[in-house]
Amino acid sequence: MAFYEDFSKVYDQVMDQSLYDQWLAFTNRHLAKTTQSIFELACGSGALSVRLAQQGYQIVGLDISEEMLTLASQKATRAGVSIDFVAGDMRELSGLGPFDCVTCYSDSICYMEDLNEVKKVFSEVSSVLTKGGQFLFDVHSLHQMDAIFPGTSYHENEEDFAFLWDSFAGESAHAVIHELTFFVKDTDGKFVRKDEVHKERTYEIEQYLSALTDFSKVEVYADFTDDAPNQESLRWFFVCVK
């Protein structure tokens, strides 16, 4: 499982920031009106956490990467909002909560090694939700993993860093391997190379639904919209009620 250790250095520069506005819009459309507290799993550099906090919600953000949480704390300070950021693993949430809503976006569930780990996350989320609380998350679709990612490349060259992202089909069904290479300028002006490998995997919608046993209602949408998924959808969104 990748922890975005070196990626954190250039994450905000290569990440499409407009995506956070789309995650925010989707969340706002589906949040219960009574929601006060939100727990953001895999909060990364805090872009969505800050946006939600600015709307008045009580936010706790969790990420496995200490480097990402440093960026998130700095971002919250600059924005003038108070957010509790916690270093931890979404597969172990004991001692946290309860929360009115839990979110897990940016296909972070796809970083789980297998379906058993996915089920573990779902169980842990249920344990920190209030009765009637919501769980909002997204994953890559089968189409995205099988037909779009394999063989694609994204390269960016800036003054103080260069970034190469190449994707290949994984060994398991509906899996992909992302090979990331960074050249980041050090304090002495020299560029330092760092390499990371990120592995993602997704499953059929029915498998996700079968794993959400602790939730009484589950709705599935596609690509930041309120439309049902189709064969060419790239990202599936789940809105679950405990």
How would you describe the overall organization of this protein?
- The chain has 242 residues and is of the alpha/beta class.
- The chain has two domains: 7-141 and 204-241, Rossmann fold; 144-200, S-adenosyl-L-methionine-dependent methyltransferases (N-terminal domain of TfIIb, Single Sheet), CATH 2.20.25.
- The chain has seven helices and eleven strands.
- The strands form two sheets. Strands 3-2-1-4-5-11-10 form a seven-stranded mixed beta sheet. A four-stranded antiparallel beta sheet has the order 6-7-8-9, with no helix packed on it.
- A hairpin with a 5-residue loop joins strand 8 and strand 9 (191-201).
- It is globular, with a radius of gyration of 18 Å.
- The two termini are 28 Å apart.
- It holds the Pfam family Methyltransf_25.
User: What is the structural class?
Assistant: alpha/beta
N-to-C span: 28 Å
Spatial ordering of strands, largest sheet = 3-2-1-4-5-11-10
Question: Architecture of the largest domain in CATH?
Answer: 3-Layer(aba) Sandwich
Please tell me the total number of domains: 2
Output the number of helix runs.
7
Strand content: 25-35%
Query: Which CATH class of the largest domain is shown?
Result: Alpha Beta
What Rg is obtained from the alpha carbons, in whole angstroms? 18 Å
Give the averaged pLDDT, no decimals: 92
Largest sheet: 7 strands, mixed
CATH-assigned homologous superfamily of the largest domain = Vaccinia Virus protein VP39
**Would you give the CATH topology of the largest domain?**
Rossmann fold
Helicity range of the residues? 25-40%
- Helix-strand string: HHEHEHEEHEHEEEEHEE
Number of strands: 11
Unreliable stretches: 1-5
Outline: globular
